[in-house]
Amino acid sequence: MRAPIGTFDHARPAVDCLDLLTAPVANAVRGWHGDIPADQLIYVDTDPEIADTAGFVEHHGRELLDQSANCVVVVGKRGTESTLAACVVLSRTRVDVNGAVRKQLGSRKASFAAQEIATGETGMEYGGITPIGLPGNWPLLVDPAVVDTPWVLIGSGRRRGKLIVPGKAFAGLPGALVLEGLGV
Fold first, then answer.
1. Region 159-164: what's the mean pLDDT?
2. For 41-63, what is the mean pLDDT?
3. 11-178 adopts what CATH topology?
4. CA pair distance 25, 133, nearest whole angstrom
């Protein structure tokens, strides 16, 4: 199979390689439903040493910067109450944590979650967190530019490997809200 974007040596439907995904991601792929068929979720094998965006696009091509997205875990705080959420933006942008995220979560303060919280709560590896397989009760804030991108490269739950997913699939994930102004 050839990947719809990028030049990867190995691409195959994610449903055919569940053993390469973390348990939460594999479970989400296994139980996939919605407008986008599960076989359109593509897994590509990649080097874990270059999982971060800068190294990845340097190795695989700068054109992927416009087709890649990052998923970050944030925490909103209001008094003693904390809310964990995830945000998905194109890699060439950053998450407006103190504006769009804070307002959407109704928090006084919002920040990126500590690495141990992000990995512990998601069951995914740092540098590979993906919106597919997140806890179902979390808000998932998605920038419209992600949904409007035909194919999006995103983490697979591990540093090794990435998923290539139709952009419109992100709007249908559990807890998803497409939020204008999320990516700046």
1. 94
2. 83
3. YbaK protein (3.90.960)
4. 4
